Amino acid sequence: MIFSSSTEYAIRGLAELACRGGSEGKTVMLDQLVTGTDIPRDFLAKIFQKLVHAELLTSTKGRGGGFALARPDHEITIMNIVEAIEGPGAFDGCVVGMEACNDHMPCAQHDLYKPIRQRLKAYVQTTTLADLAASLKAKQAWHRLREATAMATVAQVAAGDAK
Predict the structure, then answer these.
(1) Spatial separation of the C-alpha atoms in residues 105 and 30, rounded to whole Å
(2) What are 93-114's pLDDT values in tens digits?
(3) What is the DSSP letter of 92?
(4) What's the pTM?
(5) φ, ψ for residue 122 (rounded to 5)?
(6) What is the C-alpha separation between 98 and 102, in angstroms, rounded?
(7) Which of 73, 156, 83, 65 is nearest to 121 (CA)?
(8) Which residue in 54, 73, 154, 160 has the most C-beta neighbors within 10 A?
């Protein structure tokens, strides 16, 4: 919508991680994280490496490895994620793409968009991963998808054991 696909997947991936225990220091494997979502695994792996470098995530290799949040989910805001992926000042650009657009040299949309930008910035600066995870967990569709995914995994394991 308003973010790049990388930023959207970063927000969704981190919200899933927070829901699945990654906020309690528990590592979650990428394959487990994307199961039941439409998030592309390899794309998310690249994005998560950026988030490791930005110190929003930790990464552990090997058996029992995976990703975990680098700090509690209530301390990570959407703004932290946006800045890690898109860089600082992601909300400061002109809404119509003009290079020089400010209060002294406004574009045609500047005065209309300025209050929207301010509200959007306030939202991303105050909304945390804990907020996103709580909202996601409150959705019945999320729980149904997790249950269906778990049942499918059990069926796959059982089919493999029967061979």
Answers:
(1) 46
(2) 888 888 888 899 999 999 999 9
(3) -
(4) 0.81
(5) -60, -40
(6) 10
(7) 83
(8) 73
Is the pLDDT at 50 greater than 80, yes or no? yes
Domains of the chain: 5-162 (1.10.10.10)
Length of the chain: 163
Query: Would you say the C-alpha torsion 65, 10, 16, 117 has a positive or negative sign?
Result: positive
Cβ burial 34-63 (10 Å sphere, 16+ → b, else e): bbbbebeeeebeebbeebeeeebbbbeeee
**What are the b/e assignments for 96-111, b being 16+ CB within 10 Å?**
eeeeebeeeebbeebe
pLDDT at 12: 92
| Arithmetic mean of pLDDT, 54-64 | 88
**Nearest residue to 56 (alpha-carbon basis) of 31, 78, 81:** 81
Asked if residue 96 lies in contact with residue 107, where contact means CB atoms within 8 angstroms, the answer is yes
